[in-house]
């Protein structure tokens, strides 16, 4: 059995910033309402009109992660790409990403559909491939263009979401190193499928003109219900993983929850009785960019020196499904 560790991180945010003030010109809302109910001030929007795609953003994040890890294209043995907004339905975005990264070794690539939990699912899968000795260097990516699936006339959802990309290189750790993935837990509560969904466009209801007119091809969400799922499952997974690891909440140095709403993060921090400042927060700047929130937050906190080698970090996510997952690692 081998150990895995994060050897490099990278992230990318598109150039265009959308403020709460901008949104108040599109839907009936106000900066104050958005800030008070979500903690979000700005979000970033991909320039899709000029061809900026999900895999373009992911490629930039991956290159940064590979530079930090000191690995080249030929060293990557698998790409796990968590996303619910691939460039196209076919082929999968990870194949586009492989090509854009100049990886010519025909390594394994797949997209992972676990919505906002996609990165945490991906990291857990990659960890297992490294533990078994199958691979030594895996790119785990979370990237989204949620602006392409948001109903810009629905104030209950459009204020929340943004675009962006984050990635890590998960590599094999030497036996005597302290850096390693310590544990993980994944789950899904399928009773929640109707609370956060896109109704049409799948094989069970191919898109019709009527659907487009009714905006059934965009995200629909029962916000309050999702909020309750989020807090229950994220607290549950964090506690489960801490129990498994024989740790107390404040034994963990950094807590990186999925960034959906500052009220969700504050509620969890309160219930876990986390000391102030233990949570990495980016939702104020970037809003919720689904599978990208956690790898972007990891990258920021490592690059600005908050997360140091030897410190422990808990990742905790939930997403449509309702999928959930947490990962504990020592950086
Ligand atoms: O990655 C997972 C993604 N999803 C989430 O994490 C969503 C979790 N849920 C949430 O973050 C919150 O439920 C929301 C931010 C979506 C909504 O906040 P809330 O405090 O749960 O508000 P609410 O839905 O209960 O709505 C309260 C009021 C309603 O008006 P009435 O019925 O009381 O008159 C809404 O119509 O606020 C109204 N409202 C708004 N007002 C101004 C809803 N959206 C807006 C808005 N601006 N953007």
Describe this structure in a few short sentences.
It is built from ten helices and 13 strands.
Structure characterization notes:
The protein is α/β, with parallel strands linked by helices. It has helices at 20-24, 31-38, 54-69, 93-100, 118-131, 209-214, 223-244, 262-271, 283-286, 293-303; strands spanning 3-12, 16-19, 42-45, 78-82, 108-112, 137-145, 163-173, 180-188, 196-198, 219-221, 254-257, 312-319, 323-330.
Low-confidence segments, given as residue ranges, are none
For the CA atoms, what is the radius of gyration?
Answer: 19 Å
Largest sheet strand order:
1-7-6-4-5
Identify the overall geometry: globular
Question: Which features does this protein show?
Answer:
331 residues; alpha/beta; Peroxisomal Thiolase, Chain A, domain 1; 2 domains; five-stranded mixed beta sheet; four-stranded mixed beta sheet; 10 helices; 25% strand; globular; binds oxa(dethia)-CoA
List the helices and strands and how they pair.
Layout: E1 3-12, E2 16-19, H1 20-24, H2 31-38, E3 42-45, H3 54-69, E4 78-82, H4 93-100, E5 108-112, H5 118-131, E6 137-145, E7 163-173, E8 180-188, E9 196-198, H6 209-214, E10 219-221, H7 223-244, E11 254-257, H8 262-271, H9 283-286, H10 293-303, E12 312-319, E13 323-330
Parallel strand pairs: 4-5, 4-6, 11-12
Antiparallel strand pairs: 1-7, 2-3, 6-7, 8-13, 9-10, 12-13
The structure holds oxa(dethia)-CoA (UT7).
